[in-house]
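About this split. The held-out portion is used to measure sequence recovery: a designer receives only the structure tokens and must propose an amino acid at every position. Recovery is the fraction of positions where the proposal matches the reference. Here is one held-out target exactly as it appears in the evaluation file.
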């Protein structure tokens, strides 16, 4: 609001960014609430993709904000309205900077602990707020020194930061929603070929988020093994993969008899 009173486009851009940040927080909370529901008949694999969808919505908010800042910057470059810089402007931006630093550190820590896509995405969003606030302070100083042209130019830089964060979040969300591969299959193959009892493995597939990966694969075992021994080997395979890749949350192992002279599907 103060950005409009002082005619500072960069402060207005920061205000838009902060408003979108608050909106994304609400969206994130809704997404986390849905994602926390246990699996049911309609969603037997759980509801974690609601959280991914919430992160996707955050990226949309950021793109809208980017457009608004670009529009305001263009208009300011056209009309050249002077910026009114007061001590209140600096006080507001310094307070905003301190708050954003605290929120970024907290969300990043809790996002890693809880393996939450929304918290990690919002931590990225809020981190961009820090650089935005520093840019705005620089803009205010430049305007005070008689270089008001830097105000809309810095706002353009802010728009770039907002758009970049939005793109990063959109890119990651898309990988989850489209079930993109998360771990190189060759790495898993090399790891499992060191496990005693595993003759070979194939059809290695991974999907999910960076912090919550699902793995399924086919493992060939000696056909003379008992069902009990093969079952124990499957558990060992799961344990080896999850120990090597902490981001893996679930491993599904399909056991097949190893018949060297026949083609295994």
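Reference sequence for scoring:
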């Amino acid at each position: 609001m103060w950005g409009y009173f002082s005619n500072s486009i960069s402060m207005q851009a920061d205000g838009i960014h902060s408003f979108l940040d608050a909106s994304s927080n609400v969206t994130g909370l809704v997404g986390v609430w849905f994602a926390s529901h246990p699996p049911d008949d309609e969603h037997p694999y759980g509801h974690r993709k609601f959280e991914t969808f919430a992160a996707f919505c955050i990226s949309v908010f950021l793109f809208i904000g980017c457009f608004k800042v670009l529009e305001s910057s263009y208009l300011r470059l056209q009309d050249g309205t002077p910026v009114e810089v007061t001590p209140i402007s600096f006080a507001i931006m310094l307070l905003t900077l301190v708050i954003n630093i605290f929120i970024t550190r907290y969300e990043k820590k809790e996002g890693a602990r809880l393996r939450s896509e929304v918290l990690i995405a919002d931590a990225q969003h809020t981190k961009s707020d820090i650089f935005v606030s520093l840019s705005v302070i620089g803009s205010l100083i430049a305007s005070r020194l008689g270089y008001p042209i830097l105000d809309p130019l810095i706002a353009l830089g802010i728009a770039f930061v907002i758009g970049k964060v939005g793109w990063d979040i959109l890119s990651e969300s898309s990988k989850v929603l489209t079930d993109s591969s998360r771990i190189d299959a060759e790495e898993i193959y090399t790891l499992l070929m060191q496990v005693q009892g595993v003759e070979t493995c194939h059809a290695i597939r991974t999907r999910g988020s960076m912090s919550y990966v699902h793995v399924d694969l086919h493992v060939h075992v000696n056909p003379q093994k008992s069902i009990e021994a093969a079952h124990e080997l499957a558990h060992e395979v799961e344990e080896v993969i999850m120990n090597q890749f902490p981001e893996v949350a679930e491993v599904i192992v399909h056991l097949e008899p190893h018949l060297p002279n026949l083609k295994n599907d």
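Annotator remark: Helices lie at 2-6, 9-35, 49-79, 87-114, 117-144, 150-177, 185-192, 227-244.
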